[in-house]
Amino acid sequence: MDTVYEFTLPKGYMDRNGELHKKGTMRLATAGDEIMATRDPRVLSNPSYLTIVILSYVVTKLEGVDVVNGTVIESLFTADLAFLQDMYQKINDIEPPVMEVICPECGHAHTVPINFTREG
Predict the structure, then answer these.
(1) pLDDT single digits (tens) 10-34
(2) Which residue in 4, 8, 13, 17 has a CA-CA distance of 20 to 30 Å to 83?
(3) Is 117 contained in some domain?
């Protein structure tokens, strides 16, 4: 199973010297990443900062940048942030699992989400 994925940012991170950095790696998120991010003081004071914190944990390398942290992630162009958010969702299978079912009455096949929580 792959746990680290390479990427190329559409625009690139521009450092203080005006250099662009586009190539990097992202690892799969862990439950600990999610828990630590929700406890981060920046997230507690501004919940929309959650994305920045989580991405700063899972983006493990950005070519030419010594340390990828929240400051680097929040300095990305919006197109790059959206790209990394999308990549995060895809590699961590954020989409709910689905199952194909066949209607017993009409025989038509349907794709339905699987809900693991029990309601009612």
Answers:
(1) 999 999 999 999 999 999 999 999 9
(2) 17
(3) no
Show the domain range for 74.
4-95
* Inter-CA distances, 54 with 14, 26, 69, 93, 106, Å: 20, 11, 10, 15, 45
Q: How far is CA 44 from CA 48, 50, 52, in A?
A: 9, 9, 13
How confident is the model at residue 105, as a pLDDT?
A: 87
Which sign does the torsion angle of CA 65, 68, 69, 72 carry?
positive
Residue 87 in any domain: the answer is yes
DSSP helix/strand/coil, 19: coil
Q: What is the pLDDT of residue 118?
A: 46
Residue 56 within any structural domain of the chain: yes
In a domain, 30, yes or no: yes
- Answer left, alpha or beta for residue 101, where phi above 0 means left and psi between -120 and 50 means alpha: beta
| 107, 108, 112, 114 alpha-carbon torsion, rounded to 10° | 20
pLDDT given for residue 102 in this prediction: 84
